[in-house]
Design goal:
Layout: H1 2-16, H2 39-44, H3 50-58, H4 63-68, H5 70-73, H6 79-88
């Protein structure tokens, strides 16, 4: 079970880097679990399903959030993740830098 959680985490992180920034006027619930259909493509390099590609496009507004999450950040450069996104017509995100931390008192 622990291995499955690690694999899903890898999938979510890898996908985070893969989308173009979409205007924030689009309403979407950010849920990396929505990308489970992409696990075989991300983890094993299989051809992404149409469901996977649809979910990648739906979650595009969330990818910059996922990129900034320390739990996902280190895993987003997977060659299979980049290949999956390319096959689905999804490009890497153009994420603005995160806001600076508040000043220390």
């Amino acid at each position: 079970m622990k291995t499955n959680n690690v694999l899903l985490l890898l999938l979510y992180v890898a996908l985070a880097l893969l989308a173009v920034h979409v205007p924030t006027t689009v309403s979407v619930t950010c849920d990396p679990n929505e990308l489970q259909s992409c696990a075989p493509a991300i983890l094993f390099g299989t051809t992404p399903s149409s469901t996977c590609c649809q979910k990648l496009r739906e979650q595009q507004p969330c990818f910059c959030v996922y990129v900034r999450d320390p739990a996902y950040k280190d895993l987003i450069t997977s060659p299979n993740a980049l290949s999956t996104a390319q096959k689905c017509g999804v490009t890497q995100p153009n994420c603005p830098p995160p806001p600076p931390p508040p000043p220390r008192a």
